[in-house]
Amino acid sequence: MNGWAVETKALVKAFGPFVAVDHVSLQIRKGEIFGFLGPNGAGKSTTIRMLCGLLTPTSGQALVKGLDVAVEPEAVRRNIGYMSQKFSLYDDLTVEQNIDFFAGMYGVPRESRPARKQYVLEMANLTERRSAITATLSGGWKQRLALGCAILHDPPILFLDEPTSGVDPIARGAFWDLIREMARTDHTIFVSTHYMDEAENCHRVALMHQGRVIALGAPAELRAGLSTHTLLQLDTSAPLDTMRALENMPGIGDVAVFGCGLHVAVDDRENGMKSIRARLAAEGIEILRLEKILPSLEDVFVALIEAEEKKTA
User: Fold this and answer.
1) What distance in Å separates the CA atoms of residue 127 and residue 121, rounded to the nearest whole number?
2) Are strands 204-209 and 212-217 parallel, antiparallel or unpaired?
3) Is the alpha carbon torsion for 266, 204, 51, 98 positive or negative?
């Protein structure tokens, strides 16, 4: 057995001519919160299903707790917890009945089930809702219950496939509190998401695009990779006209929409701001805000995707 909780080597999954996962190589440490980021269709869920022993790789290798997912999928599944974005709960059962069902499915010893059930109820703050029909719970409470059911057998490695999709921001924050607490007890958390702000909770992240890993590292490291440019926040009276006006200007790189404003990458802060002011004044566009900002992971992701697409253009 090697020292990695999860390791993939040139992992590939193809469905006919379509390559969903394209030579992905990763190494994830014990106790690490590892983020798998990217838009829908990037290959995140397919990778996770291979790591959970639910799909057989086309080529390459994947090891989970030292077990080859293609050779020992049943042994892999005994050592992991898996939570999909659909939550996999039974809506017509109560909270407690769902916990009982999954305790049996995961093979939790009968003598341990009362203690594990109580742990899940307290961890998810569901003790007062134990008799509630699951269908009546909000998305955030269902999310907590699904996480609790996934860890009933206390797996050392937990795979969460877009677990916060469709959940309100407050519930998302509470959910990440639970994830951080689990990591502090040496559980390895592999979590996929398309919410870039959630990556700040991860020790390291991999950015996926069209089945490939295009960046890998700690969030701060990835943001530092944009240090060759200065990033500006630009709010104007006409954002779309502003984008057209700044297109192909010397010294100005990527211009991307963020909220109601724009993020503009420039080679030099002073000259870039001067050029933007002059150009927009000539176009009759009012500047509401123009200042330097620190790049977010979303900025990093946008810049990396654009760079990748330029390579194939």
Assistant:
1) 5
2) antiparallel
3) negative
Angle, helices 269-283/239-246, rounded to nearest 10 degrees: 120
* Contact assessment for residue 179 and residue 191, using Cβ atoms and an 8 Å cutoff: yes
CATH architecture for the domain at 227-294? 2-Layer Sandwich (3.30)
**What values do phi and psi take at 25, rounded to 5?**
-120, 125
Do 117 and 99 meet the contact criterion of CB atoms below 8 Å apart?
yes
CATH 3.30.70.100 region(s) of the chain?
227-294
CA angle (307, 37, 145) in 5-degree steps: 165
pLDDT tens, the chain, 313 aa long: 457 999 999 999 999 999 999 999 999 999 999 999 988 889 999 999 999 999 999 999 999 999 999 999 999 999 999 998 776 899 999 999 999 999 998 889 999 999 999 999 998 889 999 999 999 998 889 988 999 999 999 999 999 998 887 777 888 888 898 899 889 988 999 999 888 888 889 999 999 999 999 999 999 898 887 666 789 999 999 999 999 999 989 999 888 888 889 999 898 999 999 999 999 999 999 999 999 998 888 888 877 887 777 777 6
**Domain limits, CATH 3.40.50.300, in the chain:** 6-223
Q: Which two tokens stand for residue 241?
A: 């006209």
The 8-class DSSP code of residue 190 comes to E
CATH of domain 6-223: 3.40.50.300
The total of other beta-carbon atoms located within 10 Å of residue 220's CB is: 10
What CA–CA distance (Å, rounded) separates 70 from 41?
A: 23
